[in-house]
Amino acid sequence: MSHFARKLKQSLSRRPKPQSWPLSINGSIQKIPIKYTRRTGSLALKHLVEGWCLYCPEKASLKKVEQMLTQSQADFERFIEQHSPAIQAKQQQATKQRQGLEFSWLGEKRLIDGALEQLEPQLIKEAEDYLLPKVRFYAKQMQLSPKQIKVKNYKSCWGNCYHQRGLVQFNWKLLQAPEWVVDYVIVHELAHLVHPNHSRDFWSLVQQHYPETPNAKVYLQQSGNQMMQFLAK
Ligand SMILES: [Zn+2]
Question: Where is composition skewed (Basic residues) in this entry (predicted)?
């Protein structure tokens, strides 16, 4: 192999896999995000709350990924064009059904107004604005310094802690709970930076920094399911 060919091969292999793929839909180009996952053996196109998404097998090589995407491109474009009207109708229906529904948000009553697709990102943004300073406040109290704090969508938990990475994450839906319950979850996740388990030491650290812990746990047991269902499809 010539020097040039080797260089070319190196730079090709260093090229990252695409994070999105352009599809031409109804005359305009849309970049469809790609998720790499172990849970699929072949390329799949799905419609999620936030829009279309391509699922790609995690172990496929860059070459294979590009080959699959190119081969399926026309089919995907046709599929989206065919299914768009029905999806739009379904979304409008879902929005209509939930219009005017009341939900709690940081101890206040709010009404669902407008499209759900816009409401969710808006609420996530609000949750970030609220949670980030608050997590920093409790971290200081507990003499901890998380490296990263994130707010995201979870289907079945209120928070998560990757103690080795110093990363704590929170479910935006938690803000439907009263403030004193939110505080408990913050202290709980931060305490995992010290104890990555639910040992006796862990609980005594949580209790020490948050005496309302037993009541907050009861609250989440009773209302957690309903909060988790919020805006779920
Ligand atoms: Zn925990």
Answer: 1-17
